[in-house]
TrEMBL record, chains A, B:
It comes from Glycine max. InterPro entries: Rossmann-like_a/b/a_fold (IPR014729), Universal_stress_UspA (IPR006015), UspA (IPR006016). It comes from the Eukaryota. CDD domains: USP_At3g01520-like. This is UspA domain-containing protein. Residues 10-172 form the UspA domain. Gene3D superfamilies: HUPs.
Length: 182, 182
């Protein structure tokens, strides 16, 4: 273990999602900020969409018509079966993303790699988790929503860079014409 | 030189200004991202305020009244003496900031440290210089204007994180109550 990196015992939070941008951010960081022989703890965080469309409400939200068993939430009606299917799909996506992220970290030796799955608005969850997990550094891709959603909500990275207390590293995936990043 | 860091030949641009925030960003980065025995090139960039208040305009902007020799720019009138004094003061501030920043880098061994002074809106200049200098990473404090100016213009770091093509690391100085950062 080199002297330069052995002293690191940082808690580095990396927000990952389905996009290539976040995987690029992780791999760039593994080459540039996190070293295989440091003692950092790397926490891979995936944020699932909010439960609002399928979580059960209290009794006031229940639709008790036996012809339409299910839950009315935020104007959407889903049967328990559909709710369960959405939840299952959401968990599978989370597992898949984190598996892909962990594969990128396979060469890390002393670095502890942890994974977290949380639910909610990525902007709030990432900021909250940075604080709760005592992150010394937050790393994320520059995007965290699709193009349309971002137009309404602003970019996740933009929000986080303004609201997170610790240093934030925002990594953009270079455009193909610009060549691969170092 | 350790194997982990010897391979680094990155061009790292650090935007520095009069604020403590940017000096903290630099020193945090020297502990966490830039290593004394790497072969990185560290470019310390200071952006002076725009020349608008004292640069000569073309003849249409000249006030030729011999009683008021000087330049009318953006509604402000400065005599050549005052313009020169402002320019001198501005350069002294730049020199002072860069000197302070270079002192923080004194322990770097193989890292090449360069300084640049540019003039203009820090948001545009930092973005332009990142591209022109082929920066692999931009590092800056989370603020770049005073409180009042920031309220009107938005934060420099916020603008740069959205517009710079390379990865951007934004380092916030912890509040005194939160204790010193690692």
């Amino acid at each position: 273990m080199s002297e330069a990196t052995a002293r690191f015992e940082r808690r580095v939070l990396v927000a990952v999602d389905e996009g290539e941008e976040s995987m690029y951010a992780l791999s760039w960081s593994l080459r540039n900020v996190i070293f295989q022989n440091s003692r950092d703890t790397l926490i891979l965080l995936y944020v699932k969409p909010p439960h609002a469309v399928y979580s059960p409400l209290d009794s006031t939200g229940r639709i008790d018509d036996p012809e339409t068993p299910g839950w009315l939430i935020s104007g959407y009606l889903f049967s328990p079966d559909i709710s369960a299917a959405i939840e299952k799909y959401s968990q599978e996506v989370a597992d898949c993303v984190l598996e892909k992220a962990k594969k990128l970290c396979k060469d890390l030796q002393n670095v502890m790699v942890e994974t977290r799955v949380e639910s909610g608005d990525p902007r709030d969850v990432i900021c909250d988790m940075s604080q709760k997990l005592g992150a010394d550094l937050l790393i994320m891709g520059s995007h965290g929503y699709g193009v349309v959603k971002r137009a309404f909500l602003g970019s996740v990275s933009n929000y986080c860079s303004q609201n997170v207390k610790c240093p934030v590293l925002i990594v953009k995936k270079p455009k193909p014409s610009a060549g691969a990043g170092k």
